[in-house]
Amino acid sequence: MSLFGVLPIAQSGADAMQTWIDTSAGNIANMNDTAAVGTPTYAQQTPLLTPAPASGGVGQGVKVAGISLGSSAGIVAHQPTSPLANAQGDVVLPQVSLSGQLVGMIEAQQSYQADTFAMARAQTAYTAGLTIGT
């Protein structure tokens, strides 16, 4: 792999991590949505990350193959003051773990920082290479 191959690989990682951060943020924003018992609720989203196709045996980064949806069955919770509550005072909440989403966001943020650090170092190396012989 040449030095120039670093930029697209790091960029693909940064893009994938941004998608992960965005889906986690959406999950957190919707984790308190309520629905009537017996109706579907918000389904947790998880990005599906796969290796980008390799050429010549060298990996080309990562790509988002899609977004996986979790269960929309939800968890029954007792909230008698909700306008969607049934006669027993129950509603359905999404199956989203706040701690799981926050841990995922931290992991994605650290990977994003590593990718941008690699891009900055590659840019420094390219600039240094251009000044050779001047």
What are the salient characteristics of this protein?
2 helices; two-stranded antiparallel ribbon; 134 residues; single chain
Write down the secondary-structure element order: HEEEEH
Query: Per DSSP, what share of the residues sits in E-state strands of 2 or more residues?
Result: 15-25%
CA-based shape: elongated
Kindly name the structural category. alpha+beta
Output the number of helix runs.
2
Q: Please tell me the overall pLDDT.
A: 91
Low-confidence stretches: none
Give the helix proportion (percent range). Answer: 40-55%
Whole-number radius of gyration? 22 Å
Q: State the end-to-end distance.
A: 26 Å
For the secondary structure, the number of strands is 4
Taking strands numbered 1, 2, ... along the chain, how are they ordered across the largest sheet? 1-2
Q: Report the major sheet.
A: 2 strands, antiparallel
Q: Strands, helices and their partners?
A:
Elements: H1 6-30, E1 45-51, E2 62-69, E3 75-78, E4 90-93, H2 98-131
Antiparallel strand pairs: 1-2, 3-4
Helix pairs in contact: 1-2
Describe this structure in words.
By secondary structure, the protein is an alpha+beta fold. 44% of the residues lie in helices and 17% in strands. It has two helices and four strands. The protein has helices at 6-30, 98-131, and strands spanning 45-51, 62-69, 75-78, 90-93. The strands form two sheets. It has a two-stranded antiparallel sheet. Strands 3-4 form a two-stranded antiparallel sheet. Helix 1 (6-30) packs antiparallel against helix 2. The longest helix has 34 residues, at 98-131.
